[in-house]
## 1
Amino acid sequence: MFNSPSQRNVIAVECGSTVLRLLQLSGSSASPIVQAIAHVDGAGSTPLFEQAIVDEVTVRRLKDALRGGGFSGRACALALPAKSILTESIEVPALASDEMKESIAWTAVDRLGVDRADVVAGHLSIRAGTLGGAPSEVLLIAARRAVVNRAALLLTAAGLEPHRAELGALAAMRLAWNQIKSTSLVPHFAFLHLESDRATLALLNRAGLIFHRAFPWDSSAGSNPSAIPVAGEEDESNAWRWRHLAEEILLCLRHVERHAGGSWPEFVLLSGALAEEPGVVSAIGSVCGAEARLIQIEELADWSKVTRPKGPLSAWSSALSLALPQQPALVENKVQRVA
């Protein structure tokens, strides 16, 4: 699988359902500079990580982006979409690190219904969660080897060398956590990462992660064509589209409030490709009673060397996090090739 040490200035590649986002940094870790950036659309309708055969049109587009975008080197890091990852919060006994690793691997088989040879499993401690908190509660994260290998095969076909992979939503969450931790006392806050078909919700406080849930979100647009449009503040008329998502978030917040003794989050920090969609902020504010804010990634690097990408900058939070000096990732590649 992936076992190689991480390298500086890797090309970060976020693999969405039908799009690839590429970003590479230069400069020091204290003053990173965005050296190259590119957006590559997949050629087909099948999600990129589900394609059994590498699409040659997508490979050609990826090669063109690498050649024309100012990228250097071949080493890359991969951010996987939430749809491709299995997660679950579980209780485990207090164990030594090596025993914990083994226990997590077998728990993934039991709880997620997968074959041990088919997944790579890791975990994050949940410090004060709804199942009792540390050391008994962890977030189990399992990546299917076939999914990682398919995504990596696409990258190697374009001349890249994948060195590590992790869940894009957790990479973005790490970026948000480090940004908030470095600027103020860490409040109780919620983090919401919105991809094209999945939402990842996390609740954090100064102790770290206290709750995580990933779920499909379903647009309400067109579900009730006879409904009277909402009128009022800016973007409020679009909030109807996001009501199911906001109601799901509300259920999660109430669950944590009851079972973990948690206070209501001071704000909800938004990240991901759909974070700036009209109506998201209004829906969360009206349904959940919490202020919604956008992650401010323009403050974390110098973007002056590149043409700013089209669309919301918050869509690049996972890629930027992956490109920054790394903490341990879910999967690593020491042999610089895919099994």
## 2
Amino acid sequence: MTKNINSASRILSIIDSVKAESDATPAHDVWGKVFEIENEDKSRKTFAISRCLADLHDEVESVRSEMKKLGYSENLYNTTLNKCNTLFAVQTLMSKWQSMKQQITPEVPVALGFCSEILPNEEDLIDKDSLDDLKRMAADLRGTLSSSKLPDYTRNIIDKHITKIEEALTKYRAVGAKAFEEVLQSAYGEVIANEEAFKKAKGSPELGKLSAMWQKTKSALDGVVDANKRLGAMGGMAEKGQKVLEFLSNLNV
């Protein structure tokens, strides 16, 4: 396990997990497996994978930028990062993995390991049990929503919240806790903008499960924030998460 958790370590973890995939496997299927994207609609699946690969590209460029700021020679990492960007290119999704894995040359994991040691630790890992719990809670709420008697408008809002959690779970491997920061920020605005709709759902099983799901999300993020005493953006997102929970808890009676 790497010493630090950061953009470089996440990229390295993903590359380690895909380098042994069969040559004949479509790249599309390899990435679907990595991000646990299961969707019978191929277009939707491709879109979800594309977003994750775009996130990985951003992570690659973050590593490049941070290493440059620290004054390290670009020849130590540029070739590896360029190969990573080629590997993560959306336009290669329909290629066979054989052509893509050629980018994973021996120096790639070495250079990424070097970068992960040099760059500071960003966060603690959210434990797998918490991620699995969130996945189950989202699926359970979606099942409840399918037979809900709530107004269509309210059901659509709750469905958006479920989708946001599912998207964060998918993105987590690529971008880490930032995925949940974005979700909490979005949820905060959604709750404030739709206060009346939530009030009409007061005391419903759907609202109770939604509140529990956000509580689990905030608890997972709090573990990351507290462990590293990060008081910046993540601290702000955790505060917004608390406001979301307070609002929903007041209605869940």
## 3
Amino acid sequence: MNIRSATTSDVEAIVHVHYEAVHGTKPANFYTQDIIQNWSPSPTDEFRLNQFRHKIDSGDQIFVVAELENKLVIGFGSIIPSQYEICALYVDPMYGHQGVGTKILEHLETLAL
């Protein structure tokens, strides 16, 4: 597994991971379908894809992705260093409990220091 800086070419994979993490994990049982759908609409939602493109392009947030050797993105995270804030940390549920989130967080911490 490799952790690297995200680019706008990763946006579709990032949105897919976000969707799978929100819709496919146990926390989904705690929220209504309306909340879940607003939190993470369809991974093909053009508005959502453009939101992530803008966030990556703006440079205000630093995004990283975790990818397998075959270049499949299985997780991502983001921080806003100027505000000392972790904005996101999501892992595809198929790769949960394998240390992916920990590796992303450790990488983000090194970028923040």
## 4
Amino acid sequence: MRATIKMIAERAGVSIGTVDRVLHDRPYVKEEVRRRVLEVMEELDYQPNRMASALATSGLTRQFAIIQPTWESYVGEAMAAGVTKFRQDRRDYNLTVTVHPYHQGRMEDCLRLLDQAAEKAQGIALCAADCPQIRRKLEMLAERRVPVVTFNSDIAGGRRMCFVGENAHHAGRVAGEIAAKFLRPGDRVLLVYADHGYSGHKGRADGFLERMEERGFSRADCRVAETHDDYDETLAAVTAALAEEPDLKYIYMANRSVPACMEALRRSGRMGQVRVLAHDSGPETEAFLREGLLDFVIDQNLAYQSRKALELLFDAVVEHRDPERDSFYPESPILTAENC
């Protein structure tokens, strides 16, 4: 038999009105009472009626905030598509979703946006660097009972509710396995990623180097460049590597500045002589694949990440359901010229 609010009230020893206040996160409920009611809901496997919940909260606007880097081109478009899909799917609910972008290198802007969101939002989807300042903000938000879902790049061990995004370490290992098939021990490799503070890219880099070592390659043969997803920095780093390493055989682009890498290869006259492996499908990377300039692209479903992060916040804030696991990973298909 399906659990009802009346059954929950009787089991918890409270009034139906108290259960309703807990269900819709309204004030004037003691914390111990709130916990007892939520425990009973879990024991009875209570599933709120979606339309009833929508009607019950129609006078209260739920506000969700997305704090993310200023993503350009296909990345920003894909993330925006995920937000749009969430809004369409929840159009019967009184919800607002506000996207707050910041420049990836300006951590102070991200921290300021978190402070602003904490004053108004009932839930936050966050993509940020893993650093002590962000971890302290997560502690503060947890104390205020504002759920945070990290997406695209995790802050593992921080006080976030869960993570949605690529299993970066596994994706890096896949990249290492692919690269190893085209190389011999001693061949020179260039690895380009954003920076060690961005856990998504660090995970890729660590996984790549780990798998290459397992396949008999030395880390000393891999030149590493941090270019912060910046076109000019990537162009300079790849250009320098090509000039200083005439025997360079392979470039692993763990960040999104693939066009800069291709421009450096073109200027050096070594296009087609150095193999390149990249991440994330978009119009430019797909064109490079079809032209034979890229060997493979390891993709991830970007739209899924923003949409799923908001869905998990909705479940927590509106339907009072905790996520069933700590991390939600999209598939990571390997694209070639034939299937991009």
